[in-house]
Amino acid sequence: MNRFASVPFVPTELDELRDGHMAPARGIYRIALLIPLCGSAGIWAPSCISSAQAAVEELNRANGVNGRKVQLIMIDSAQESSLPIEETVNDLIESGSIDAIVGMHISAIRQRLSKVVRQRIPYIYTPLYEGGETTAGLYAIGETPDEQLGPAMETLQSEYRPGSWALIGNDYVWPRISHLYAKSKLKKMSVNLAYERYLPFGLSNMARHVEDIAVSGAEALLISLVGQDAVSFNRAFGAAGLDSKIVRLSCAIDENALLASGARNAKRLFVASGYFGALPTEANAAFKESYYRLHGDQAPVLNALGQSTYEGVHYLAGLLQGHPDTWRTGGVGSALPVIHRSARKPLGASRGQRAPIYLARADGLKMEVIKYFKTYS
């Protein structure tokens, strides 16, 4: 099956890296769009590509990036990819083939690439992540557990009063660090931990782990599985009929994963996120207008991971417009104010104000936002 059969490519704005080579282009600002094209996280690729294209179209209708027309270079950054990502990115930087990176991939890839990029070009990392990134020239703009996970856990604990929680995630840095935070939150709330497990990517049979969670007696469950792995887990969870006994929370299940899971497998499923496609905000309305004008009504479904590439491209443009000579010294938590477009917050939001976090409940095949939390840097 071709996962990208419905992706509306714009050939003049998007090239795919082939054999690790790309000739330099004069007068063009080339952004390497690092996204997973295969594996567990490949489910997000169509929306990530389409959202980044919407940002490029907006920039190119104006001044591009500092007067240069923008072009996207697509690179597979899946954990499961056979592409030697560090070598590929290093070669592209050294040859002058790319001018910047916008990456929507797992944190393990970011940690590897941070040692390669070394402030030679700007690196915007867009998805939710575990926090703690301090590399100069690398800007992680996504939500962190203290912003996203903490308030959601408190809300569900107050509403449902579960006696204990279970934690399940993929075996890499984001789930493990997020779960360390979750365990500290449970301790503060005087709630027990009944189960904790980390799984390899691509595990299709989740039935045994669902059964172990049922046996543990947990009444709430934090799911930190990525993409298709979360879908497989939700299907097994629904088949076991555990929704009546256990309330679920995730920070990474999006509209794509909800559709793939199916409505009957998403009962009492809650998601905390900085973005949902149905947000009734002016910023999101402007984004959706650009997105559907470019791609049409059959475009890939809007979601947080896709929107993050839209925001990442605009963040890059704002960074270089406001700080063309000093971006190498900044990074997460820096004092560099960056004015940029986003579907998560208004253009004029103050530098210290982060995008709010929303808590949504799965309602059939839709996400219904039920609460939001303000966050500040």
Give the tags:
alpha/beta; 2 domains; 377 residues; Rossmann fold; single chain; 6-stranded parallel β-sheet; 10 helices; 7-stranded mixed β-sheet; globular
CATH level-four homologous superfamily name of the largest domain: Response regulator
Q: How many strand elements?
A: 13
Instruction: Encode the helix/strand succession as letters.
Output: EEHEHEHEEHEHEHEHEHEHHEE
How many domains is the backbone divided into?
2
Whole-number mean pLDDT = 90
Give the number of helices: 10
CATH 2nd-level architecture of the largest domain:
3-Layer(aba) Sandwich
Strand order of the largest sheet: 8-7-9-10-11-12-13
Describe the structure.
With 377 residues, the chain is an alpha/beta fold. It has two domains: 180 residues, Rossmann fold (3-Layer(aba) Sandwich); 146 residues, Response regulator (Rossmann fold, 3-Layer(aba) Sandwich). The chain is built from ten helices and 13 strands. The chain has a seven-stranded mixed beta sheet with strand order 8-7-9-10-11-12-13, sandwiched between helices. Strands 1-3-2-4-5-6 form a six-stranded parallel beta sheet, with helices on both faces. α2 packs parallel to α3 and α7 runs parallel beside α8. The N terminus is likely disordered. It holds the Pfam family Peripla_BP_6. Belongs to the leucine-binding protein family.
